[in-house]
Structures are given as structure tokens and as C-alpha cells.
Amino acid sequence: MRKSAVLILALLCSVLSLRAQGGYKTLVPYSEYVSVQVGEMFSYGENAFTYLDNSAGSDLFHPIIAISAGRGIGNVFEGRVSLSYGKNSGACNSLNTAARGFYPYTFRSLNLFGDVVLKGINQRFATNRFSVFFPKIYVGLGVGYSFDFSDPMHPWQDVSENNFAFGVRMGFIGEYDFSPHLGVYFDICAEGFTDLYNGLRPTEADQDLYEEGYAGFPMDLRAMVSFGVTYRFK
Predict the structure, then answer these.
(1) What's the DSSP call for residue 103?
(2) Which residue spans within 18-157 are E strands per DSSP?
(3) Which one of 10, 71, 115, 229 counts the least CB within 10 Å of its CB?
(4) Which regions in the chain score pLDDT beneath 50?
(5) What is d(CA 228, CA 70) in angstroms, rounded to the nearest whole number?
(6) Which of 19-50 are b and which e, b meaning 16 or more Cβ less than 10 Å from the residue's Cβ?
(7) What is the CA 36 to chain-centroid distance, rounded?
(8) What is the pTM (predicted TM-score) of this model?
(9) What residues are paired with 173 via a beta bridge?
């Protein structure tokens, strides 16, 4: 059994080595592609610390799915449009309540981003224009729509429903291509949305009644790690 495993591993390494030597042309300048990815998302907005205080930190994580379509812009950049869907976690004010209670809630969101992608970082200054692995970095602007809020059962704070919020993001992609058309990748991304994304917009009273910073960073944040498959048309 052990010898078979070693043999399979050796064959796999040989195949990958041959592919790397042959390689594929570095990201055809104007190739069009579509991608699908799934992963895990971490929510961090106002009062997220109350999840940790109540041993519920794992409830800040939720699955996410996204689809993308893009096109190469010369040898250096790609333009990409991405639509994602997922569940998010939030929490209402706990410090300014008599019981100092835990008031969690969830909501769903659709997020549309336009990204500028710097592609093939490992090939920019290389004389060998062939590769199978392509690291990329990207930045994007977009809009998020949050809806389907659960009831946090808070004594006085209201959560706004059906919200639109502007967003920014940046991320890193590591793509491995099996052929000129088909590849797989991982994507690490951080997003920030204007403050009403999670249904809460802290007031000056929230900020002044307790320690500085209680109202939180002026954006609702998300972090994601996902894996996907991409198909290039040429």
C-alpha cells in the first residue's frame, strides 16, 4: 500500500513537472472567462465582540457562493464582474442595556463588484512567458443589498431592513491552470461596506455613552476564503 502511494505521488509530481516545463501561454491578452467559487465568510460589524463574549464566535462564519465573468485587458490587467450571495451575522447594542444581554441576528445579502485584476505577477519580468500557476491581486468597487433580517429581540434598538450599501474590496488569487481553458484557484478577500449594510448605523450617543470606539469602524467588514473553477473561452 505504501509503495503504491509513493508511486502515485511520483507519477503525479512527474506530470506536474512536465506541465510546468511545457506550460501555457501567459494569460492570453484578451481571453474571456467565467468562474464559480464557494467558501467561508466571516462577518465583523458593530457588536461582533458580543459573539465572542458569549462563546458564539463560530456563528460569525457562514458559507458563501459567487459567480464571476471577466476579460483580459492586454498583458497586465483583467476586468471582472462578480456577484456573490450569502448569510451574514450581526448583533445589537449590548452595553447600553440593563441586562447587558446578547442580541444576535442574521441577514442575507447580494453583492455586486467590479474588479481590476493584476494578473500573472510571477511572469511580469520573466523571460519565460509560459506557466501553469498565476498569482493575482485585485481591487474592486461595488454595492451590496442586505435583506431577510431575523429579529434580534432588542429592547429598544431597531434594525433597518432592505438596505443598499457601497462597498470596496481587495484580494489575492492563486490560479492553477490544467489547460489553456480550465483552471482552479483560491481567493482570499476583505470587503468593507458603508455602515448600514448590517442594518445598524450607530449614533453619537452610542459613541459618547461608553468608551471611545464602541460604535465601531465606520464600515461593516467581511473576510472570505474561497475555492473556485474558471473556464477560459480562448
Answers:
(1) -
(2) 24-25, 32-44, 61-73, 77-91, 104-118, 130-131, 133-147
(3) 10
(4) 4-9, 11-13, 15-22, 125-128, 211-213
(5) 14
(6) beeebbebbeeebebebebebebbbbbbbbeb
(7) 13
(8) 0.81
(9) 136, 187
